[in-house]
């Protein structure tokens, strides 16, 4: 069984600076391939101009991949995730592979766009709908952040989410400790972490 992730930028034709958007997408894909290499079966690649696709071996890195894309793409995007067998040989060029996993991922992406969800999951997981629901609630919290809030919260997340991270953030952003905690509270980061924990347990 393989897991295929297919993404597409939301309302990409309305993006003012398409060149910058493309650069961000290329950078995001490069970072995912570099940081999650141990779990990638076929590298993520840009498809169709504003889309991307890759194949992974395990569900439990999806949330981290999403955070990586979220941090760098800097534009809303849909995801369609499908799992199943493939009918062609493996290749490092994901466009050369086909099979049920790809068909389900494509169908999931179409559903995500039609129903305006951040992600749709088509898998054989026992609690597929529950997992998809928690993914969407979690991602909805992330996309509610202002640029400033996003920057601070991601800095905290990327620096081990501890008191040392708080201290580093106060120096980097020249604000007090209480302001950092207030940003995390307003950004509902504890609720997001709760969602992550639920997903972690469901995706074991």
UniProtKB/TrEMBL annotation:
Pfam families found in the cross-reference section: SatD (PF16264)
InterPro entries: SatD
Protein name as it appears in the record: SatD
Organism annotation: Methanobacterium formicicum
